[in-house]
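Input (structure):
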């Protein structure tokens, strides 16, 4: 079973929507500023749906779009770093 970056959150929808929300396209730009190269939005889509080694990028579906947040990206990176 895959875990989200933060399993203790009781309402991830509310959490994401009260943070600095991003579409996957915008999230790719945000990740680019961190790692120096821009991942394709399908990479972030995979992080949301399948995860990476047991950690998924927190997200919500809103109006046919997948929305994540800057804070969710940070939690994802932190969780991945701890697992490495």
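Output (sequence):
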């Amino acid at each position: 079973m895959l875990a989200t970056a933060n399993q203790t959150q009781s309402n991830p929808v509310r959490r994401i929507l009260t943070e600095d929300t991003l579409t996957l396209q915008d999230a790719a730009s945000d990740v680019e500023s961190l790692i120096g190269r821009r991942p394709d939005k399908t990479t972030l889509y995979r992080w949301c749906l399948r995860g990476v080694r047991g950690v998924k990028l927190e997200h919500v579906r809103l109006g046919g779009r997948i929305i994540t947040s800057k804070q969710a990206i940070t939690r994802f990176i932190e969780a991945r770093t701890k697992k490495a």
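Notes: The longest strand covers residues 65-69. The first helix runs from residue 12 to 17.
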